[in-house]
Amino acid sequence: MVHVVKRFWRRLNVAEQEFIIEEAQPSDAKVLIDLLNQVNAETDFIILEKDLSIDDMQTFLQIRAEVLNEICLVVRVGSELAGVLNIVSTNSPQTNHIGDVFIALQEKYWGYGLGSLLMEVALDWAEQTPMIRRLELTVQARNSRAVHLYEKFGFKIEAAKERGAKTKDGEFLDVYLMSRLID
Fold it and tell me: What is the pLDDT of residue 128?
């Protein structure tokens, strides 16, 4: 198990704010659920499969902390949870080297480099873990900011999936399947 704690200073509006990126703990379950619900309400760029209970989220976070090929990172601005990045895998010997990436940030923190910081820490973790050799993700083709972020960190578009997602209003969206090898 790799424990990640990174501290960064960046200018946010007028005041200096400390950004801390660390592994999420089971005690973060409620604030993490609140963050996901908030981001889901702010944007159509993420799709939540179902509402998670606090117990479900605590279990999810506990599992991430116990396995070598998965991690859940959170970024805090002061005492506020601003974003999350998960890498999940399988326990199958044929695919346990592949990590599926999910990232979400509160809209008010877009444009401050938090997504880049999360990706930097996640890639460092992936390079240090003995299991992960490939990261992959799905992103809506219309989410140009996210596509740019992933490309900046070496992810490549492998395929475009027509009607790969739908908005809350039922509009079909194309998605990109992107990946990056970890060597």
Answer: 92
